[in-house]
Design a protein that fits this description.
There is one protein chain. The protein is an alpha/beta fold. The protein starts with a strand and ends in a 19-residue tail after the last strand. The protein has one domain: Glutaconate Coenzyme A-transferase, CATH 3.40.1080. The chain contains five helices and twelve strands. One of its GO terms (molecular function) is succinyl-CoA:3-oxo-acid CoA-transferase activity. It is an enzyme of class 2 (transferase). This is Succinyl-CoA:3-ketoacid-coenzyme A transferase subunit A. Keywords: Transferase.
Length: 234
């Protein structure tokens, strides 16, 4: 069964105000550029967005912030976005900062059907406020609840028509986790092949987690911070 769509906007027909969107990517690496733009075009408001960070002012999830479509961000890092800072300080944006490893495990647990887990990360800090703790082998651990979302938007390098995915190096980051933990997963890819053309051992994520596949014609892949070395003319 082919899950390929030619119009990515059609995959978001069920996205409604107030829903939770899980967005893959790390910085600007491996972000679902087309999915973000489709949500912006739809104009859905009051969203809770779960992502490692919120892009930059004019690219990535920053585009949804700019359009005031996000009410709450659950992230581990937010330092590169001035719009994010302004909306947080003004009270327009609710922010739930989560340690990066904890955020990854919350998503993994959500996709695996595990409702909660215990971790030492955050014990004795503000992160632990109003959360259950428990001692194991003389050590205190913090209980964290899993995260599940209504929609997952992810980016992969390659997919077959069933949705088996291959990610490109570090662009894998949070993408598989967001795909697993969402009720509806929309993946955009650079390369699309027929079923059987990806060797089973090369599949990073099974197509059982994927609902829609969009073959993107263009990806900007913007570099967040470009560091260059001066040429040595001596």
């Amino acid at each position: 069964m082919s899950k390929v769509i030619t119009d990515i906007n059609s995959a978001f027909a069920g996205l409604e105000d107030g829903m939770t969107v899980l967005a893959g990517g790390f910085g600007l690496c491996g972000i679902p550029e087309h999915g973000i733009e489709a949500i912006r075009a739809k104009g859905t408001k009051g969203l809770t967005v779960v992502s490692n960070n919120c892009g930059v002012d004019d690219f990535g999830l920053g585009r949804l912030l700019e359009n005031k479509q996000i009410d709450k961000m659950i992230s581990s890092y937010v330092g590169e976005n001035k719009i994010f800072e302004q909306q947080f300080i003004s009270g327009e944006l609710n922010v739930e900062l989560t340690p990066q490893g904890t955020l990854a495990e919350k998503l993994r647990a959500g996709g695996a059907g595990i409702p909660a887990f215990y971790t030492k990360t955050g014990v004795g800090t503000l992160i632990a406020e109003d959360k259950e703790t428990r001692d194991f082998d003389g050590e205190t651990y913090l209980m964290e609840r899993a995260i599940k979302g209504d929609f997952g938007i992810v980016k992969a390098q390659k997919a077959d028509t069933f949705g088996n995915l291959v990610f490109e190096k570090t662009a894998r980051n949070f993408n598989p986790l967001c795909a697993m933990a969402a009720k509806t997963t929309i993946v955009e890819v650079e390369e699309l092949v027929e079923v059987g053309e990806i060797a089973p051992d090369d599949v990073h994520l099974s197509g059982v987690y994927v609902d829609y596949i969009y073959h993107g014609a263009h990806f900007e892949k913007r570099i967040e911070k470009r560091t260059v070395k001066e040429a040595n003319h001596g």
